[in-house]
Specification:
Layout: H1 19-30, H2 33-51, H3 67-72, E1 78-84, H4 89-104, E2 111-117, E3 129-130, H5 131-139, H6 143-146, H7 152-160, E4 169-170, H8 174-185, H9 189-201, H10 210-219, H11 223-226, H12 229-246, E5 255-260, E6 266-270, H13 275-288, E7 294-297, E8 303-306, H14 314-318, H15 345-348, H16 360-375, E9 381-386, E10 402-409, H17 412-416, E11 423-426, E12 442-448, H18 457-467, E13 468-478, H19 489-492, H20 498-510, E14 517-524, E15 534-540
Parallel strand pairs: 1-2, 9-10, 9-12, 10-11, 12-13
Antiparallel strand pairs: 1-5, 3-4, 5-6, 7-8, 13-15, 14-15
Helix pairs in contact: 4-7, 4-13, 8-9, 8-12
Length: about 550
Amino acid sequence: AVNRGWNAMMDESYLDITMRQSFAAFRQFMTSPEARAQFADSVRFKELAEMFPLPVMSEDFTVSCTDKEKQTSTSHKVIVDLLTDIRCPFSFLSQLNLERALSNLGLCKDVQVRYHPVFLNPNVPKEGESLDDYLLREYGFTKEYAHSEQYPLRVHGLKAGIRFNPDRRVVNTFEAFALVELAQELGKQRTVVRALSMRYFEEADDISDPAILRSVAEDVGLGWAFSDKARLQAARDRVNSRYAELASTINEVPHFLLRELVSGNGIEVGGNRSVSEWEEVLSMVIEKSRFIGMQVPGPHGSNVLLVEANPNAPVSLAVRAQHGWVPDVWPYEAADFSRQDESPDNAMYSEPRYVHHLDESSLMRLRKAYFSYFRALPHGFSVLDLCSSWASHYPQELLAGAKRVAVHGLNRQELDANMQATERHVQDLNDNPRLPWNSNTFDLTTMSLSVQYLTDPRAVFSEMHRVLKPGGLAAIVFSHRTFIEKAVRIWAKETYDGEGHVHLICRYFQHGPAGGWQSLTSIDISPQHGDPMWLVTALKAP
């Protein structure tokens, strides 16, 4: 049980002691200032992570790298949210050291830095203030000391490759940050921050001067955007709003939130960090992400890697925890599949609903999972989306290899709007579960966010089994959202019970038909922040 890793809970001090002594040591630690600080950081990490949602996986992550760095780069994508004021020299030093650490670890092309405003003083007057006067007033540093070769900031700057100009002024950086915000729309934020920093720290330019800002914008190819008054004002508004949100949360800069993109795990740290310290932080971020990803059974004997699946989540462990156990008889009664609203389902769906029922981060996880399964299908495959609508969330780039994409649902207008479909069929499965397709037709069937409405699931799953080819895969996708009045009673009793619903869906497979399915697998692909996204899959037995 001894562990020295990033998540260590026990070390050698726990060996050869009594239980009473271990509890006493644990209590002493939990009441210590170190523990309070540690857990305060954890709370702040969660707060900041919620404030700054991770981008979807389809976004590009490119920064300037050498060819050697590109060759040695890992596949991990790191998102860095930097809370800073552009005129903070320690923030710039820490950024330079971070960039060197990224280069040393071969990670520089796999990082995206996003900047958020935390102004040291939002009320700096337009004319600014002499840095010499500021340092004397705030820190008691004389001009002679601040201009000397021994001044610590100068020493650290030279070590990092920057020559701080002591003649620069303290300026208001709101307009400079508006330019950074404008650049973030276009993926040029790091280039703009570097240009502004060099102009300010080395050349002592006034980066509150519109002429200087325009010059920087033109140098990096954003002159046209800077001249767009409406666009620039929208950027100012976003800076104002974000600063108002952060001012009460962060009271020092720089502050960094580092997360690995797939897992969402990471660390938040503050202050100036050396290159070696950044290398340690980055290694910890990557280490925290290593427990993400699952190799799962795919169609026709393939193995599929779902890089965003969490193998240690309760839902992912739910099927394995059953150790292959199957109840001998159907364990449910007819009353379990009654509903609050027993009216015909086609009445509820008489009007089209062109909406998504989950947030975009969760749907992106679903699309990524589908992409992995579709990539394992043979050329000329056939796929069936049951209980579908205007969007199947299939990977469009892989549908060119499909022979047929059949969609089934309750509303003709929604199905007609589904541009991925090659054929469409309207049918209420609770009224008639018999599917119109021949046996052994499809390589893959999917049912997304609808299994909770089936009043005769055994019949529907038996039909899925019939129309699938031997070795074909059925994927049932579900979450915690539902139209509660239409969900069957056994599901509606606890809509958040992911593991319980996994077991329920497993019973549908195991008795629909008995012995007809194999390789049952449960998978949690939920994003760090968003709606849960869960899957249960099974293969049609030969």
